[in-house]
Each structure stands twice: as structure tokens, then as C-alpha cells.
Structures
1.
Amino acid sequence: MESASPSENPPQHSSSRFAHLVGVLVALLTLTLPIMAIAKFSPSMTQPPQLPTYPMSQSRD
């Protein structure tokens, strides 16, 4: 048998509409679920942290 000859049984494409639908649903959940979780559990209004203020010392001239 030659190694370059085509095989007797070419690989079958088992494309199923159900498998395609499940793949699309998994992809959509993978993309949207983290964004939804971040939006739900992050604070809606964040205040910027206030830096401490220090009094200015006067220089002696």
C-alpha cells in the first residue's frame, strides 16, 4: 500500500445541528457570563480615593 494513496474510508463529517447549537451556546455563555458577573458584583458608583492632605510648611528665609 502506498503512503500517498487516499484512504479507503475518508473521514466522515459528523455535523449535527444540535452539536452546532450547543457549541454556539457555550461560546455565548463564555463571552457574556463574565461580563454580566462583573457588572452585577462591581460597585455602581465608585468614589475616587481621597489622598491625605498635609499642611504646607513655611520656609525660613
2.
Amino acid sequence: MDPQRYIRDLSVRKTPKGIMRTLLVVSGDIPLHDDVVGFCEYGVAVETTDEHEGVYQISYIATALKVRGTHLGDTLLSSVIVRLRDDAWRFNRTPLVLTQVDPRNKPSMDLFTRFGFMDEGSDPDDPEYHLLSLEFTPQARGNYFGSTLAFF
């Protein structure tokens, strides 16, 4: 996926305040000519209530071809998990995140596996993709800048 094209074509959706967030990593040394080299779109898919448990989701994670092999995906995913742990701690949300991955996308499957995501098998609603899940421990936020800062 080309992060630049995705961000350019992103249509803003109306969602409750603070529910969906996108983390961007930008690279460039010429003012106004920075490139988006990676992004991760994530948020609350289902709110936690007294009646049911909620769930977070990671909708997209992508890096530009020019930064492949730099472990930017690891940096993005690590930062998102820090934010989800903090959000679950602050708002008493269920500490569970899901994502959907094409099992033929080995780099993506490997990335999520490295972070402890479990492959739950085919998504019943979209059998070409697998659901991956991660249960985590809520924790007050760490240093966001320290977990996201990367230079390319």
C-alpha cells in the first residue's frame, strides 16, 4: 500500500470524538516536501459497556517502499500498543485489539506475530483475511515521543 496515496485519498469519516486516530511518520528535509513514510490507523471499534466488552481495532498499518527493512512497522505498532494500553487504563475499556490481515502478506503476519498477536483463523465476514487478536494489560501512558520518534 502506498501511504501517500492512502492519506491523500482518505475521506474524513464522522466518528465520535477520539474514537479513531491515525499515527503518521513523516520524513523529509525540504520544508513543505515531506513524505509520509508510514502510518497506522487505529481506534475503538466497539465501546466497552456494562452489557458487553469492547474492542480496539487496527484498520491499517503501512510503510513506504523506500523505508522497508528499517523496522518502521515495529515502531508504529509499538507506539500504537502504548497508546491503546493507556486508553484502556484511562477509560476502563476492554484491553483487546483486533486486526484483519491477508495471510499471504507474510511481512504483515510476521509483524503482528512478533508483538504477540494470535491468529484466530479466517474472518467469518471476510474469509480471504485472518483475524489476529492481542489481549494486553492496561497501563498509564509512557513517553509517547520516546516510543514514536524515528528518523529516515
3.
Amino acid sequence: MRLGQVMTEDIVEGTDGYWFDNNLQEWANDGWDTTGIRNYLITREEYATEALVRIDYLISACEQLITRMSHEWLH
């Protein structure tokens, strides 16, 4: 399966079938360089879901750290 290709039998009703692409696009819109992530997910598609969940966790952790480091009390 390629990113962006929806496997209709795998889609749970009421969910978005383009989960991978939507997450990558959202991160790109937030300023993250997703080229390497996209390439990794394509070349290791059997681990893509687990990898994307881990990447989501890491990006969230980075964003929280950026927020903490930008507090005025640090200046």
C-alpha cells in the first residue's frame, strides 16, 4: 500500500481513510520537514502505522518543549 492509497476494507466507518497523508500534511503545515518521514513510511510500510504513532508522540513532545522553552521566565 502506498501513502494516500485507501484500502476500503481497512477503513472503519466514520474514520478518515487518509490518516497517513493528513498527519503528514498537518505537520508540514506546522513547519515540520516531513520528507524523511514520508520516505521512511513508504519504504517500511509494514511498520507505517506504528511508526506514525511514534512520530506523532515525538512531534507532540517537541512542540511541548518548544512551548516550555519560550516562556518569559527563561529570558
